[in-house]
Amino acid sequence: MLATTIGLCLVGVWLPCSLIAAFLGMQPLPAAYWPLLAAILLGYAGAAFAARRLLARWVPVG
Q1: Cα–Cα distance for residue pair 31/19, rounded to 1 Å
Q2: With contact defined as beta carbons under 8 Å apart, do 17 and 28 qualify?
Q3: Where are the transmembrane segments (predicted)?
Q4: What pLDDT is stored for residue 1 in this prediction?
Q5: Which residues contact 26 (CB under 8 A, 6 or more apart)?
Q6: Whole-prediction pTM value?
Q7: CA 51 to CA 55: how far, in whole Å?
Q8: Does 5 score more than 90 pLDDT?
Q9: CA–CA separation, 18 vs 27, rounded Å?
Q10: Which of 1, 3, 34, 2 is closest to 17 using CA atoms?
């Protein structure tokens, strides 16, 4: 599942820069978008990790 997610993300990054982008009406994203996206994804991952740890304290596993 992780490999599929990473693969789809890579296709999403590659597609606007590919030769078929013009046919699909796409254009590359501005350079300022990438650091913002990285910050959002890191924040989301951190929040998900923290929520999982908090939930593990209240809900016994196994």
Answers
A1: 19
A2: yes
A3: 31-51
A4: 67
A5: 15, 16
A6: 0.60
A7: 6
A8: no
A9: 9
A10: 34
Tokens of 6: 């990473």
Question: Which residues neighbour 27 within 8 Å (Cβ) at sequence distance 6 or greater?
Answer: 16, 21
What are the helix and strand counts (H, E) for the chain?
3, 0
Contact present, 27 and 16 (Cβ < 8 Å): yes
Question: In terms of C-beta density within 10 A (0-12 exposed, 13-18 middle, 19 or more buried), how is residue 30 classed?
Answer: exposed
For 27-46, write each residue's pLDDT tens digit: 888 999 889 988 998 898 89
3-state secondary structure at position 3? helix
Q: What confidence score (pLDDT) does residue 43 get?
A: 93
Q: How far is CA 6 from the centre of its chain?
A: 8
Amino acid identity, residue 49? F
